Amino acid sequence: MRFRDIFGFIKKRAIAFNGDKQANVTVTFALAMLPLIGFVGAAVDYSRANSVKAAMQAASDATALMLSKVASGMTTTDIQTKGAAYYAALFNRPEATGLQVNITYTTANGAQIVVAAAANVKTNFMNLVGKATMNVGVNSQIKWGNTKLRVALVLDNTGSMNDFNKIGALKTATNNLLTQLKTAASANGDVYVSIIPFVKDVNVGASNYNATWIDWTDWDSQNGSCSKSGWGNDTKSGCLALNGNPRWTPDNHNTWNGCVVDRGNPTGPSALNTDTNVLATDITKNDTLFAAEQYGACPQAVMPLSYSWAGMKSLVNAMSPNGNTNQGIGLAHGWMSLVGGGPYPAPPAEDPNYKYTKVIILLTDGLNTQNRWYTDQSKIDTRQATTCANIKAAGITLYTVQVNTGGDPTSTLLQQCASDSTKFFLLTSANQMVATFQQIGTNLSNLRIAQ
């Protein structure tokens, strides 16, 4: 029996019972049933409406995600037409009538797609009390580009990167990552990238030989000519130790190859620890300056934050493996490239309408072997652990990638340096670099549903 028939039956019986003085209890019970049945019917209608709303929300989310990938190259009319058609293909609920889908696309303070949908759902029970339909509405919002990225790529260029064509795989992986980051930027400046090739030293650019942030003390004592021939006359100390009051003449600074060693002196009296932080340079304090060295395995010069994608790829393609491993100096320079100082210009001012994410990606294929002061791995690691802790305390996300093709132990240091366990990658083949950098690039440029 249909609900309408039941309702009619109850209505007739209630009229009859109303004139029957012997049926007071039955009349009271029948009258009490009317609102109860109404509540049950309303619950059924609301349940159906919520089911329709869930389907509408799923279609709305999917439509917004789809449009976010293509909207930048479409007109407003095309976005509305394509979005409405896509929505209609996903949403198939015949009980919903009068479906309306409105789509808006804006680019102020980052790109945003909003998909708003509304429809009427026919009622079965509530129709009996005059409500024939229920209105259902949903809203999906996707934002992208409202977070600006500043990324430092700290890349191992040491001699072991020549084995198993690791340097070739690194070039491919890095170029692909740069393409991903370029694609994630809807406008110049949305994504800035710095590139820090490192070995024992970092090359800050030989053209900076007149910069005030360079300390020439050690370089001048190691590079020059002695007025007297003799054993050891190729250094200042050896020259001056010779008889006859010899004279030491440092080379012209324009012959410097651009390499610098770790800042500061952890064994000295200053205790500034400038090798583990981004303390500003001060010409009155040598420990804050970048000490020049004529390192024979000087790598490619660094590139400060930039969106010159062609220039970055040119640098990457020119990388060549040589020298010993000092991850700490690469991290320190990567950090400074994000905040400015010394060879790194101050980054552009942050727009308060955007969020800014700062990231360092460190890739290395070996354990630490040499820095400015030590050839003992544990001592070098201790300095680097402090650098990593300081980087993370500054709110910078740190990825670490260990390319372990030589059977080295898994680096506890790199595991601890990473911002969390999902940001440490242990690779056992060179080719895995490509997929790993792609995964990191996807994480950095991934869209998210805002509401």
Mind explaining what this structure looks like?
- This protein is α/β, with parallel strands linked by helices and 451 residues long.
- 37% of the residues lie in helices and 21% in strands.
- It has a 6-stranded mixed β-sheet, sandwiched between helices. A 4-stranded antiparallel β-sheet has the order 1-2-3-16.
- Strand 13, helix 9 and strand 14 form a beta-alpha-beta unit.
- Helix 1 (3-18) packs antiparallel against helix 2 (24-68), helix 4 packs parallel to helix 11 and helix 8 (327-339) packs parallel to helix 9.
Outline:
This protein is α/β, with parallel strands linked by helices and 451 residues long. It is 37% helix and 21% strand.
Order of helices and strands: HHHEEEEHEEEHEHEEEEHHEHEHEHE
Overall average pLDDT: 89
Distinct helical segment count: 11
Biggest β-sheet, characterized?
6 strands, mixed
Taking Cα atoms only, what radius of gyration do you get, to the nearest Å?
A: 35 Å
How do the strands and helices of this protein lay out in sequence?
Blueprint lengths: L2 H16 L5 H45 L7 H15 L5 E11 L4 E12 L10 E12 L2 E10 L9 H19 L6 E8 L3 E2 L10 E2 L1 H6 L1 E3 L9 H5 L7 E3 L8 E2 L29 E2 L11 E4 L2 H9 L9 H13 L15 E10 L12 H17 L3 E7 L8 H6 L6 E4 L4 H14 L2 E2 L2
Parallel strand pairs: 4-5, 4-13, 7-11, 13-14, 14-15
Antiparallel strand pairs: 1-2, 2-3, 3-16, 5-12, 6-10, 8-9
